[in-house]
Design a protein that fits this description.
Blueprint: E1 8-12, H1 19-32, H2 34-37, E2 45-49, H3 52-64, E3 70-73, H4 90-95, E4 100-103, H5 106-111, H6 116-128, E5 132-137, H7 141-145, H8 149-160, H9 166-171, E6 173-176, H10 190-209, H11 211-216, E7 218-222, H12 230-234, E8 241-244, H13 251-258
Parallel strand pairs: 1-2, 1-8, 2-3, 3-4, 4-5, 5-6, 6-7, 7-8
Bound molecules: 2-phosphoglycolic acid (PGA).
């Protein structure tokens, strides 16, 4: 069994790869990461988050080929069922053996108008369906320049975790993703990433839910993570993993990121 701070490297494919491409991608990852994914206990957990239309294909591929990748999703609806055209519930994802669900990604918040309350309802739904939420938080460039990074991130952490028990918080994942670093090639400096993950994510969890939850909650950094910057980020005491967008689409790059410990 992985302990709760086992590093988690997650590939957020966004709206890329149809189900044929998805199968090829996970088969190649399975080949490239064979030895790493079989370590017992694992030194790292690697999750892939394909579009909804790929999830069943990826599930059957990783189960039949015994590829020890964790299966993830990019979003879900907070209700179990109902008249919500175009939506997918957490319970439907759980049926496909999904382990991790990204919740409140900045693209969902900015492009699809998701509020803190809606994101919080999704966190509850994912936990109720016995999966692990990856709650995304992060500031815009304007907020950073105005010195509001801490307030924004801490506020999103508090709102996203509202109503949870300390034990639940201790088992979930929070991804700090500065919005200005997503898909731009700009990464936060390692010092900035560490200081936000420590002071505005983990310390907020400690203040709201206690030291035990803060000691076990996993905090990921996301935003232009690449094979060349992952090792330095992962060396930070409050960074327990990475949420990787663009570089997760190429199996060679994503495998190199997952193998950061060998650098
Ligand atoms: P990026 O995306 O790695 O392409 O910057 C990260 C994310 O949006 O999760």
């Amino acid at each position: 069994m992985a302990d709760s701070r086992t590093p988690l490297i997650s590939g957020n494919w966004k709206m890329h790869h149809n189900h044929f491409e998805a199968i090829q991608c996970v088969q190649k990852l399975g080949y490239l990461l064979k030895d790493l994914l079989r370590e017992e206990p694992p030194s790292v957990v690697v999750s892939v988050h394909p579009p909804f239309t790929d999830i069943r294909s990826v599930q059957t591929t990783i189960e039949s080929d015994r590829i020890a990748l964790a299966l993830g999703a990019q979003n879900c609806h907070p209700d179990e069922k109902g008249a919500f055209t175009g939506e997918v519930s957490a319970t439907m994802l759980a049926k496909l053996n999904v382990d991790y669900v990204i919740v409140g990604h900045s693209e969902r918040r900015e492009l699809f108008g998701e509020t803190d309350e809606f994101v919080n309802a999704k966190v509850h739904a994912v936990l109720k369906a016995e999966m692990t939420p990856i709650l995304c938080v992060g500031e815009t460039l304007a907020e950073r320049e105005e010195g509001r990074t801490g307030d924004k991130v801490a506020g999103q952490v508090r709102a996203g975790l509202k109503g949870l028990k300390a034990e639940q918080v201790g088992e979930l994942v929070i991804a700090y993703e500065p919005i200005w670093a997503i898909g731009t090639g700009k990464t936060a400096t390692t010092e900035d990433a560490q200081s936000v993950c420590g002071e505005h994510v983990r310390a907020v969890v400690a203040a709201e839910f206690g030291d035990e939850a803060a000691a076990t909650v996993r905090v990921q950094y996301g935003g232009s993570v690449k094979p060349g910057n992952i090792a330095e980020l992962m060396a930070q005491p409050d960074i327990d993993g990475a949420l990787v967008g663009g570089a997760s689409l190429d199996p060679d790059d994503f495998a190199a990121i997952a193998r950061y410990q060998e650098q």
